[in-house]
Structures are given as structure tokens and as C-alpha cells.
Please model this.
Amino acid sequence: MRTGIYGGTFSPPHTGHMAAARAFAEQMELDELLIIPAAIPPHKNVDAPVDPALRLRMCELAFGDIRGARVSDMEITRGGKSYTVLTLRELEAEGRELFLLCGTDMILTLDEWFAPEEIFARCTPVGIRRECEPETATRLAEKLCLYRERFGKEIPFIENETVVISSSELRASLKEGRGHGGYLSDRVYEFIKNHQLYGTK
Model:
């Protein structure tokens, strides 16, 4: 069983997240893909935090049409900071191979996460390739070499069309009444408006 893990704050889940999930599932030939909204992300502060139950519902609306995808509340139910290693421990099982989707920024800092040796031992991190500056590409190559030497793991990369939007930019656009520019599914946008999230009215 090839199980993909795609975690994040998903506040809100946008078309970039959805495209990444589809590419991850298809290119890594996953049997199942778990979308796991974090309770409290340990690596960043989120402006305008939204109730976890609402973020969970938005994820169900956003990812529901992706074949093999399932939204899990395991990190929200666990509570506290959502350390990746705790999720891996919970999901690890005989006959199950775990793959962890990581953006470029995550790949560059994986060795700084809580218990990185255990993360690499319990799963295969999978990078998602995006256009990046030459300086970033150089740093990325250095990190991949470091991970190979330190953890004995090669990190595969999947290809994905770049979606130039961040969740923080999207939240600001919604708050300022500029809409979402096509970066949200209709169902997610209606949910946001109905619950007046991110300053919408």
C-alpha cells in the first residue's frame, strides 16, 4: 500500500494545493492520499487563524473529487503542535509505504524539523518541483546531497505547473474584497462567504 501524506494549514485550500495533490497521487502512483490539516503548524505563524473544524470542512470540499484522496482529522484530533513525526508514527503499519509531499521551502529545512532522522526512516519525502531562482536551485542541490549522505535517502521529485499564489496573499485579497482570482473552487469560496471567513462579508 503506497500512502501519500499531504499536510498543511490549508487556510484556505486553493487550486495550487489541489493541483499538487493530483500530481502527487498520479506521479507517485499512490494507492491512497491522506490530506491532513494541521492543528497548530509548528513551523509558521498564521495570520487570521480559522477554527480547525472549518479548515477541515474546506479541505473536504476542495479535495473531494481527487481520486483516492481522503481528508483526515488525525492532527486536529490529536491537538497541540502538529509534528510530522507523530503523524508518521501513527500511520506506519506493516505493508504500508509512506510518502510525504514537501514543497521546496520544506525540502530546504527538513533537517531542522523535529526528529529528522526518524522522519527519513519512516517515510520517503517527495519534492514538488517548481520554478526557482538559481540561488535556490543551488541550495536545493546541496541539501539533497546532505540528505543522501546523512540519512541515506534519495528524494524523488514530481513535476507540477506552478501556481503563483500564497495562502496569505489569498487571505488578504478576500479581506480587501478583491475576490479570489480563480484560485478557489466554487464550493470552497461559497463556504468562506457563508461563514464570513478571512474578513469576507
Observations:
- Strands lie at 2-8, 32-37, 69-71, 97-102, 124-129, 157-159.
- The mean pLDDT is 92.
